[in-house]
Amino acid sequence: MNRQIRTLGIAMMVLFGALFAQLNYLQVFRAESLANHSGNNRVAVRDFSSPRGEIRTADGVVIARSVPVDTPFERLRQYPEGPLFAHITGFFSFTFGTDGVERTYASELSGRSGDVRIRQLGNVLADEPQGANVTLTVSKAIQEAAAGALGERRGAVVAIDPRTGAILALQSFPTYDPNPLSAHDQKAVRAEWERLTASADKPMLPRTFRERYAPGSTFKVITAAAAIERASELVNKDYPVLKTLDLPQTDQGLPNFGGGSCGGTVPNLLRVSCNTGFAQLGIDLGAEKLAGEAEDFGFGSIPPIDLPAAARSVFPDAAAFRRDVPALAKSAIGQQDVSATPLQMALVAAAVGNGGVAMTPHVMGEIRDPQGRLIRSADPSPWQQAMSPQNAALLRDMMVGVVASGSGTRAAIPGVTVAGKTGTAQTTGDNAHAWMIAFAPAEAPTVAVAVVVESQDGVTEATGGRVAAPIARAVLAAALSRQPPPVD
Amino acid sequence: MLAGLLTVAAYVLASLGRTASVPVDLAPFLGFTLGTLAVAHVVTRRLAPRATPVLLPVAAALNGIGYVFIARLDADRAAAQATWTALGVAGFAATLFVVREARLLDRYRWTLALLGLGLLLLPLVPGIGYTVNGARLWVGLGPLSFQPGELAKIALAAFFASYLVEKRDLLARSTWRLGPISLPDPRSAAPILLAWGVSILVMTSQKDLGSSLLFFALFVVMLWIATERAGWLALGAGLFSIGAFSAWSVFEHVQTRVRIWINPWPAAAGEGYQIVQSSYALGTGGLSGTGLSLGSPQQIPAAETDFIFSAIGEELGLLGTTAILVAFLVMIGAGLGIARRAQHPLDKLLAAGLTTIVGVQTFIILGGVTRLVPLTGITLPFVSYGGSSLVANYILLALLIRISNDNGRQAAALQEQL
What we know:
The complex is a heterodimer of chains A (about 500) and B (about 425).
Chain A: H1 2-29, H2 31-35, H3 42-49, E1 55-56, E2 62-68, E3 75-78, H4 86-89, E4 92-93, E5 97-98, H5 101-104, H6 106-109, H7 114-120, E6 133-136, H8 140-150, E7 155-160, E8 167-173, H9 178-181, H10 186-198, H11 207-210, H12 220-230, E9 239-242, E10 244-246, E11 253-255, E12 262-264, H13 266-271, H14 275-285, H15 287-296, H16 325-332, H17 342-353, E13 357-359, E14 364-368, E15 374-377, E16 382-385, H18 389-405, E17 419-426, E18 432-440, E19 447-453, H19 464-482
Parallel strand pairs in A: 1-6
Antiparallel strand pairs in A: 1-2, 2-3, 4-5, 6-14, 7-8, 7-19, 9-12, 10-11, 13-16, 14-15, 17-18, 18-19
Chain B: H1 2-19, H2 26-47, H3 55-73, H4 75-98, H5 109-121, E1 129-132, E2 135-141, E3 144-146, H6 148-172, E4 176-178, E5 181-183, H7 190-206, H8 209-227, H9 230-250, H10 252-262, H11 273-285, H12 308-341, H13 345-369, H14 387-417
Antiparallel strand pairs in B: 1-2, 2-3, 4-5
């Protein structure tokens, strides 16, 4: 009988060996494909219900947090400020994923990034990584000023620190409330998603960095920069005072805005936003120089902001103008095929203010683990060298003239030198997008802004100077009052 | 002692993972776990002092890990499982107390046979038997419900052992030749045919594939060990093939089982849901698991009973599942060791039979949840939630320890003579 018992033992070993082999197959060899299988929501559920760090503003307001709740997901993501920061934080949805900072800094917020993990090694009992907290460069005070000034008009406001590229405010209207999208009842979440995506107002579109508009006359800053940098003889050329510029190759003329007459040298052309003069300047510069300057300011590249899916701004290839001089003339004043995001135009203003260098835009200020230890902080770096410091100073002075006595006087702040440029980009008929880009204090700017108010039905005379300049002024003032003046 | 500490540590970790705090009921839990184990240990030292020291701690560790996972999956069931553990240890003590020598079971051979068959068929009695998940295995008496089949397998193993030891010479004689194959005398083959018939009966009437497979395997293995004739294995394999094939052709639920074994993915949302979720759980667990109570094993239907191994695999990974395999192998090794050392054929056969129950049952369910073999629902001994199973397995353990003690006593006696 012992022989049989021994054989039975061997048989058992074989059976258990087969089990062990099968376990290795499932838990090692196929582990990854099973864990990430489309029908397996374990990883998604774990990510969705694991602790997640807070998102805070630069002035210490919590704008995203996770609270324990009694649902199978265990934790609910809340956005205490509702729609105010929606386009920055994004949302955190089980069905629709994430957007905004929730996506860019997902691994830090969930505590799954290497940096956060290594720091938690000492804390053995916290067997699940705790999420790190992300503090933004955006401050609630400036964001509220931007939201309040824009009000319920469709448009966008970007405020940025030219010295570092730190985003100070990023307001887009219409907006949405990320709370319902981050809720646990997926049926309700889907209904809200349908409602938001079906809306013609596109409330989930961050107009600040994912929507392009014709920049209109704000683009004249780049045309002026092209002259200063690449054809200095044109800067002091005296352009004739005209009501309409006759364009070659066509019987259409290019009129000044509102039917006025203007002319003179580049500083004066910029001050009064002279279409005829800038259109001729564009023709005089030629397509290569204009396109080259636009590229130096970042057109054609996606601004490397730490928010998902930023759009690139567009200036056509020089080759496109070879047989189409009227298009070149119109592009020189920011019409035709030129389009830019409000973020890009804020970066143009910031570059002029910052000695010709556009810094890499970013919303993350610093990331700290739950114990308060620093994990990462923003590391300012240049993005585009658009102009030399001397040339940037020349352009800055021209932009000061715009606000001091030109088309942008409504952006002036008593006691502060503001540099800026208005824009009114005609859309259909009398309707136009109203633009303003500006920075202050002009001599050493700490804030640059771009404002766009989309064309409103039934509202004519919506010029940049009238509509956008006061918004720029409010945001500049809010930012300046938050920041101590630089110490000399 | 070590098993107790292991259980308590795992329990604390599970709670930490869930709520990041030490469970409030830690002290009573610690007391209960260590207390129960201490009782079992003291009883063993008193009633079977020469028994192997391996079996009880391994069983306790398996029981403890199972409990932690049940507590993590379903708190109400954990309370019930704790009660059943206490009852199991009581059954363990009672068995050691009553059965002073395993051979004495010989006297109650036919009683055990009737008891076994009676228990097995009890769920078919109208009025008290009822069906859970399509299998008619349950008996309800007032608030109590249990699966008598769990106890039946022990009674039948004891009966088989006693019957086969007496008839082994007769059964070993092969008078029936079919070409090169020599088969046993048809008359003496009657018992195996009877066992086969009963298994088929159980399977068809109660729809319990796992148990009928276990009974059949148990009987064939015991017959083979008793007679030392491999012919019985061949006959058993043949009958198994016939039974399995006819079950497959006749019953739709058997066809479904085979289909979702070969490829569960097309039915991932339907019949294959459970096995697919089990694969997901094991795959997600990977090498080291998600950590206790940090996975989602509650997504597997019946995670605390038949699929508890997959839950362990998700949260403790390959390391955890391998530890469980090793624990069972240690238990099986100890059981077969007891069988080999036993002097009396009845002890030998009973120990081998009881060990076969543990080994085959473990293989059936683990092979099922890992899709190595078609899934046939059965509990994982000591680990799964289930009162009848737990009590039955503690009784089984007591019998093995009793035989082990007898071995030790005889060895000591032998040494004295020398």
